[in-house]
Amino acid sequence: MSNVTSASHPKGLYVLFFTEMWERFSYYGMRAILMLFMTKALLFDSEFASGLYGNYTGLVYLTPLIGGYISDRYWGNRRSILVGGILMAIGQFLLFGSASLLGTDLAKILFFLGLMCLVIGNGFFKPNISTMVNQLYPQGDKRVDAAFSIFYMGINLGALFSPLVCGTLAEKVDYKWGFFSAGIGMIIGILLFEFLKNKYIVTAEGKPVGTKPLPVQKEKIETPTTSFDVKRVMLWVVIYAILWAVFMQVVGFNFVSTLIFATSIAAAGFVITDPSLTKVERSRIVVIYIIAFFVIFFWSAFEQAGASLTLFADQQTDRYIFGWEMPASYFQSVNPFAIVIFAPIFAMLWTGLGKRNMEPPSPVKQAIGLFLLAVGYLIIAIGVKGVSGADKTSMFWLLSMYLVHTIGELCLSPIGLSMVAKLSPVRLGSLLMGIWFLSNAMANDFAGMLSKLYPEGGKTTSLLGLEITNLYDFFMVFVGMAGIASVILFLLSSRLLKMMHGLR
DSSP assignment, residue 209? Predict the structure, then answer.
């Protein structure tokens, strides 16, 4: 059977599309109710819950580094995805157990065990399924950006329905059924992948994609001596220890935040100093790192959706429609709903511009994404100006912000995945995808720190000496952060394009 669809994309793309859709259904369904579960069921205070949320979502994006390495060296993409999916399903059912035993010490134990399984499972799953998308296409194929936009639509199709299903069950029935439905979604994704992978996840020549790596993969890596490798490892162990001391003792991060930031920086440094890299490979990897740095600012602001913006939707947004109060978790379906609508448009846009040699390079697209993020926060800042205390704002402002953020996300996130896949040396594909997700790890942990600044109940918080006394001040922090980052990235884009050596 031909592996090419009428839309000229491999059928394997759509298998990965639906596998990722169900995995994202599971993850975002749980995430939509996580803050509400912690504050309303487990009775954690909002500041502690925000920090825990940041630590958890940060670790979710830290473990792909390990999963990517194990996949590249030992297991291959397919086995890693299976193991990761099973662990995540177990994690969701542990959360189901926690919600079933509220008021007991065991409930909290199961809660943290469930989060741990989700963190480890995601580490095996996430970098490998993204890497497989690129492997379906010949090197240099111009359809790759469009393919990642389609794949990204699958991510958000799952994220669209999960808050509606899991959120309704959790907020209107019982939290345990929200987690249970998330676990069922993960099982469906695993079964779909296992039954269809051999038939459809193959190259144009019919060769299977994502199998166990060959024991060779040493190509031209005979240059450095073993002693040199040992010295490089020891050097980065020392640097890692120094980073750990700086973040823990000087900056004042907690254990998990220190683990995320120190590991992210040290791992990126270790990879870029690999003696087997050619000059062109190292230059392209530097581009990945620079873009990843700017992506931190995007996701730390964007991921307020699961933290401070969930509290804002729950406490200070008028959610009544004709007498019916919409669950706060429903707002997290706005972004994926808009992505499902706009992703095909962007896929056609990039393809059409590419045929005319008018497509903006990846760094410019991502600068646009950051700018639109700033615009979105400016909209909601205007909407809440003067709002305080028990006042509630129209849901129009929150919906408008999420819509603008969606367009920005489509300019940044799928393009970033595509860029990493294109710029990475084949032998380091999954590992560098894991490195890329480290920027998300730092961003998500940073998002939790920023969420603590949320002026709940009229409290005053501060950032770099600036007092945040109301919602307007809080949202303007993100306007400034994303706006400045977008300008700097745009100014750097021409230089980055040269460092990509012919790839865009």
Answer: S
The whole-number pLDDT of residue 463 equals 67
The whole-angstrom separation of Cα 344 and Cα 154 is 11
Q: Facing residues of 321 across strands?
A: 324
DSSP code of residue 326: P
Which neighbouring-strand residues pair with 486? none
Residue 329 identity: S
pTM exceeding the 0.90 threshold for the entire prediction: no
From the CB of residue 357, how many other CB atoms can be counted at a distance below 10 Å?
7
CA distances 303 to 28, 50, 188, 465, Å, are 12, 11, 26, 24
For residue 458, the model assigns a pLDDT of 66
Structure tokens at 251: 């900056």
Kindly report the backbone phi and psi dihedral angles of residue 317, in degrees, each rounded to the nearest multiple of 5, phi listed first.
-120, 130
CA distance 107 to 103: 7
Torsion (CA) 423, 428, 429, 433 in degrees, nearest 10: -90
12-33 b/e (C-beta count within 10 Å ≥ 16 → b): bbbbbbbbbbbbbbbbbbbbbb
Alpha carbon distances (Å) from 458 to 38, 39, 472:
21, 18, 12
Q: Smallest Cα–Cα separation from 307: which of 446, 470, 155, 466?
A: 446
Positions of the chain with pLDDT lower than 70, given as ranges: 1-7, 145, 214-228, 388-390, 457-458, 462-465, 502, 504
Cα–Cα nearest to 120, from 91, 77, 153, 155: 91
> To 10 degrees, what angle do helices 11-36 and 144-168 make?
40
Tokens of 483: 């706006």
Position of tokens 């979105």?
A: 376
User: What pLDDT, on a 0 to 100 scale, did the predictor assign at position 399?
Assistant: 93
The whole-number pLDDT of residue 222 equals 43
Are 448 and 47 in contact, with CB atoms under 8 Å apart? Answer: no
Domain 11-201+227-499 class, CATH top level: mainly alpha
Helix axes 471-499, 308-316, angle to 10 degrees: 150
C-alpha closest to that of 267 among 429, 499, 439, 132: 439
Domain boundaries, the chain: 11-201+227-499
Burial bucket for residue 226 (CB in 10 Å: 0-12, 13-18, 19+): exposed
pLDDT of residue 248: 92
* Contact between residue 302 and residue 405 where contact means Cβ atoms under 8 Å apart: yes
d(CA 248, CA 257): 9
Query: What's residue 443's pLDDT?
Result: 92
**Length reported for the chain:** 504
